[in-house]
Specification:
With about 425 residues, the chain is an alpha+beta fold. Helix content is about 15%, strand content about 30%. About 45% of the residues are buried. It is an enzyme of class 3 (hydrolase).
Length: about 425
């Protein structure tokens, strides 16, 4: 009996961990950390990334070792020919014995939709290019969380970049620097080939907090300095939560690690932000958080519950379509849900904390699966949301294989703004099906 128990336990754990995975699939092992060194001159830009910064505008962010480089971006529609320029601001920070380079942020525009622009940062170094998002449907979002910087991260990014998309959403846990500040620089260099060509819109995770008692009590020092998001443009007073419009979608990036109760600034901002949404102009509403409100994985169980209790009703009444979360290093999709029950007028909750971080996968799920959980799998990968028109969108999740990305889950979604039952007072529940 002493020898049988460990074998039985091992079999049980493997069975639970591999639920929903095809028999021929071999689950990947963790892969080593990638460190990207700085191989440009001190005045040349590094860690270049772009983000949406209000209507018809983009923010270009980069870092230079030379603190005298001007915060200016030259840009135009023809390679090497810059018809316009804009000047912004720069900042830097210290963290114990670490001193960052000069961090530049420049807002450029107005820009035309669905247009390729070529740009140069600070008047030095290589030319970059990006394409602006469209002004109308269709639009495609790539979604991945808990990236880190391992060989699996590189695999995820290569799969994301292998197919075209318009904008990337990242629900927290970017670099996994965890106070080791040079890893922030390495992460910026790793993602630059992708984040400099399409807007990356991020929100914070627990690995961005980086507090230290007395000396750095408030946290997010590196995150706020490096990844400036359009909080001011959306009326938010904090870089930890904000919103923006793109094509016909309103996207809200919430902060799981700042106050969210009914007396908080975030709560009051969210109510005001949703009250201003015009579903005729933006028929889709997407929300991104870090700690999931619904989770059948044993990892981080219940950590999003207090935020769910504080804010779920607001999202439900606003008819939010999809809520993306990270934190749990696995993939899970729920049916439309509200207050722990299937509800045809609630959002679809998707956990996608599977970008490739160094901590590995969250292998253990509850057994049996709760019936509101439609698909779950502990694998690295990324998701894609293609909003086709004002009424329908296609969601798919792509597992990282060695050489390609295999689509393992998909569903067609109908926008709640177009759902007659959800615009009525009496709302009935529904069970999961192939179209939500």
């Amino acid at each position: 009996m002493k020898t049988l128990l460990p074998h039985f336990l091992l079999f049980f754990l493997l069975f639970v961990a591999t639920m929903g995975v095809s028999p021929e699939y071999t689950r990947p092992h963790p892969r080593p950390l990638i460190f990207r060194p700085h191989n440009r001159s001190e005045s040349e830009p590094q860690q270049v990334h772009i983000s949406v910064a209000g209507k018809d505008n983009m923010r270009v962010s980069w870092i230079t070792s030379d603190k005298k480089v001007k915060s200016v971006v030259e840009y135009g529609k023809t390679p090497g020919k810059y018809e316009a320029s804009a000047t912004g601001e720069s900042t830097s920070y210290k963290y114990f014995f670490y001193s960052s380079g000069e961090i530049h942020h420049v807002r450029i525009g107005p820009l035309e939709p669905s247009t390729m622009y070529y740009y140069r940062c600070g008047g030095y170094g290589p030319e970059f290019s990006f394409r602006t998002p469209p002004s109308a449907f269709p639009i495609e979002f790539a979604v991945t969380g808990d990236l880190g910087q391992t060989e699996w991260t590189a695999s995820t990014l290569s799969h994301v970049g292998a197919r075209d998309y318009d904008l990337l959403l990242l629900p927290g846990d970017l670099s996994y620097a965890d106070t080791n500040q040079p890893l922030w620089d390495s992460f910026g260099r790793l993602v630059e080939p992708y984040a400099s060509t399409r807007p990356w819109m991020v929100t914070e995770g627990n690995h961005e907090i980086e507090t230290f008692p007395i000396i750095y009590p408030h946290g997010f020092r590196a995150y706020n300095a490096r990844w400036l998001m359009p909080h001011q443009e959306s009326g938010s007073t904090s870089n930890l939560y904000y919103s923006f419009d793109v094509a016909g979608a309103h996207i809200i990036m919430l902060g799981s690690y700042t106050d969210f109760d009914s007396n908080s600034n975030q709560y009051k901002w969210l109510r005001g932000d949703l009250a201003r949404v015009d579903r005729r102009r933006t028929p889709w509403i997407l929300v991104t958080i870090h700690a999931p409100w619904y989770n059948s994985n044993l990892a981080h169980k219940g950590e999003g519950e207090s935020m769910r209790k504080a804010m779920e009703k607001i999202l439900y009444e606003a008819r939010v379509d999809v809520v993306f979360a990270g934190h749990v290093h696995a993939y899970e999709r729920f049916t439309r849900v509200y207050d722990n029950k299937a509800d045809e007028c609630g959002p679809v909750h998707v956990t996608i904390g599977d970008g490739g971080n160094r901590e590995g996968l969250a292998m253990l799920f509850e057994n049996p699966s709760p019936w509101i959980s439609v698909y779950r799998e502990a694998s690295f990968g990324h998701g894609r949301l293609r909003i086709v028109n004002s009424t329908h969108a296609h969601w798919s999740w792509h597992r990282n294989n060695e050489t390609d990305a295999h689509m393992s889950d998909e569903v067609w979604l109908e926008s709640l703004s177009s759902s007659t039952p959800c615009n009525q007072i009496n709302i009935s529940s529904t069970s999961p099906n192939d179209e939500l």
